[in-house]
Amino acid sequence: MRNLRDTRNRRKQTAAVAVAGALFALAGCGQSTDDVFSNLNGNGSSGSPEATAPASDARPETPPDAPPNYADNSRVRRPGEMSARDEKRAKHEATEVERALEELRRDGRIGPAAVRPLLTRLSAPAHVAVEELRIGTGTGAGKAEGSAFGIWIGGTACVTGSVNRTRAQAHANGHYPETGCLPPAPTH
Asked: Which residue ranges does the record annotate as region Disordered (predicted)?
């Protein structure tokens, strides 16, 4: 008798859970996901696109074929804004640096030991960072023959670039959030 009663109770519980699940699923029919829970924090939705659209500067724009949080997760790989004064100075400095690095490259002197003194002399008193050139990502990442560099210009700008056997390049950009004037290491 006890087993029969337990079986009936289990059936009733299962039926109650199924009915509750169906009601919950149907409660949102015909509404967008954003509207289903809009009143939970006391804010109603007017249903107009203008009312539900986020502010244009709330998040960085995500490329259409990127994962959902790509823009947030890749923010550290994008340089910040430069002031107009620092940008002008950095662009001028980038031209001079690229010209000097091209001479080093033609002489075959592209390692950090040759690049660092040249950049320090050209950019004094600015802070200069020089490291071995990195290539690849993940477990295939490694060092390549050449140098990567970053030079602080004013309070908001950098001259960033690299030199290897085939080319020397330098360009003006803002500071990277976590690494200053050197671009972040490649990732997956």
From this structure: 38-96
149 strand-pairing partners:
130, 161
Alpha-carbon 117 to chain mean position: 31
Q: CA-to-CA distance for 152 and 172, rounded, in angstroms?
A: 10
Contacts for 38 with CB less than 8 Å, ≥ 6 apart: 44, 45
Cα(28)–Cα(8) distance, rounded to whole angstroms? Answer: 31
Q: What is each CA distance from 9 to 14, 20, 28, in whole angstroms? A: 9, 16, 30
Q: By the 8 A CB rule, do 105 and 169 touch?
A: no
Give the Cα separation of 151 and 130 in Å (integer).
Answer: 9
Decide if 99 contacts 107 (C-beta within 8 A). no
Inter-residue contact 94 to 171 (CB < 8 Å): yes
Q: What is the mean pLDDT of each run of 10 residues along the chain (188 residues)?
A: 64 67 55 44 44 48 66 64 92 96 95 95 89 74 86 93 95 86 73
Q: At what angle do helices 112-123 and 84-106 cross, to 10 degrees?
A: 140
**Burial category of 163 from C-beta neighbours within 10 Å (exposed 0-12, middle 13-18, buried 19 and up):** buried
